[in-house]
Amino acid sequence: MADNPELILRVLQLRFDESLSYPRISAQTGVSKTAIFSLVRRFHQVFTDWPLSGEYSCGQLARALFPGRYPSAPTVTQPAKAEKPRRNRFSPEFKWRLVQQTLLPGACVAQIARENGINDNLLFNWRHLWRNGGLQPPGEHETSLLPVTLTPEPDNKIPAPVQIPEQINTLPDSLCCELVLPAGTLRLKGELTPALLQTLIREMKGSSH
């Protein structure tokens, strides 16, 4: 098994991701239970947790677990390049669709990953994320809009006082008194003043004689 990197990865996936027992793993892969136990123990000695980073390939995993079987690859020095920000080119819909495919009966995670051009470790990471509630169906992660009710603000302005035009005390040029005398009719206009009243009385007395 140490010479088969893909088989090493498959055994670890069945153990850690599928939580299968050693006998069931042995029945599916043909690897003895002793070899499976030895591989799992070796993994815990080299690595701290599962799943591994998506950058680990089958060959890198096998080289880390069995360094004596795989000679170190020659180091090639390349000129330094300006680092570009890494972008996640996998949409949540893509991740969800692939995870759902792996849940179908008889589905092979490694085969689904290869058919979609991704590392199978990355797909196992998405499955692990989905089981912990970190990967939701498309549409459920969108923010829902809350209804907003607009209430008009009360008008606190004090209405301007209505200006009532002042009445101008004008003396109407109207008839104040009309006195019919034998000699004619006496019409008095304007304000009835004491002097005008005396004149009226005097004329009335004169007309009575």
Written account of the structure:
By secondary structure, the chain is mainly α. The chain folds into three domains: 1-72; 91-139; 177-208, no CATH class. 42% of the residues lie in helices and 6% in strands. The chain is built from eight helices and two strands. The chain has helices at 5-17, 22-29, 33-46, 58-65, 92-102, 109-115, 120-131, 194-208, and strands spanning 175-181, 184-189. It has a two-stranded antiparallel ribbon. The longest helix has 15 residues, at 194-208. The protein is rod-shaped. The mean pLDDT is 77.
Quick recap:
The protein is 42% helix and 6% strand. It has eight helices and two strands; from the N terminus they run αααααααββα. It is rod-shaped and about 160 Å long.
Structural topology:
Elements: H1 5-17, H2 22-29, H3 33-46, H4 58-65, H5 92-102, H6 109-115, H7 120-131, E1 175-181, E2 184-189, H8 194-208
Antiparallel strand pairs: 1-2
Q: Which characteristics define this entry?
A:
209 residues; mainly alpha; 3 domains; two-stranded antiparallel ribbon; DNA binding; transposase activity; Homeodomain-like_sf; Transposase_8; Transposase
Strand content: 5-15%
Q: How many DSSP-defined strands?
A: 2
Helix content: 40-55%
**Average pLDDT for all residues:** 77
Helix and strand pattern = HHHHHHHEEH
Overall geometric form: rod-shaped
Q: What number of structural domains do the residues give?
A: 3
Oligomeric category = single chain
Largest sheet: 2 strands, antiparallel
Point out poorly predicted stretches: none
Spatial arrangement of strands, main beta sheet: 1-2
Work out the radius of gyration: 54 Å
